[in-house]
Amino acid sequence: MDELKMELLKLKFYEKSNDLYQFKQSDDLVMFNIPHIMEFRKLLQVHVLPWLQDLTGIQLSETIDMTCSKYEYTDRLLCHDDELQGRRIAFIFYLVPPWSKEDGGSLDLYSVDENGQPKCV
Question: What is the pTM of this model?
Answer without folding.
Answer: 0.77
